[in-house]
Amino acid sequence: SKVGDCGGTTSWFLSDFDHGPNFYRLGEYDELEPVIQAFQGSHARNSLAAKAGFNAASLFSPLWANRQLCQPDEGPLACEYRLHRPSIAFIMIGSNDVWHQDSFDAQMRRAIEYSIQNGVLPVLSTKADDLEGDGSINAAIARLAQEYEIPLINYWASVQPLPARGLQDDGVHLTWAGNRFDDPQAMQKAWPWRNLTTLQMLDAIWSAVQAAP
Length: 213
Description:
There is one protein chain. This protein has helices at about 35-40, 75-85, 100-115, 135-150, 155-160, 190-210; strands spanning about 1-5, 90, 120-125, 150-155. With about 210 residues, it is an alpha/beta fold. It is globular and about 45 Å long.
């Protein structure tokens, strides 16, 4: 499941991998094809826990839940987990928490603990932007991943070498190119790196589970 703000809702995030090999080129990362096939059907799914404008607190607010699919007292995260029953959730949030930094830590803990209690492995990700100006939200995300001993994608680090650090002129949204991992020009944009790093993490988790006793 995808959990987060507009970055988790767009068809640019993972969806190409459900549409077939004409929509992506793995290049030197062709070892990722098996994990793409293993999770077919989830890549392009519209998550009930991802919506433009979401912050960490929104995940638990029934106000933001899909009223046609969710129960009256159910927040988006609980609704998504009940209906989709994921084993892994990529939690990518924080840009809209710049105005709610005082509650970010507590709400993220709530999301992490709720996921674990429901048998879902939460995978955290740092964000590309630094709207707060001091990197404190990314630092909090990394600290929580370490504390709970859960996976972390340091997406912020992956976009630092890119032009404008992978950000559009607004300093928030990611630059776009198709998922052509063998195209140097495409890999100067942020979205291919969002998809590549997520697939790499998914592959690492899947491989570890397969190798476990």
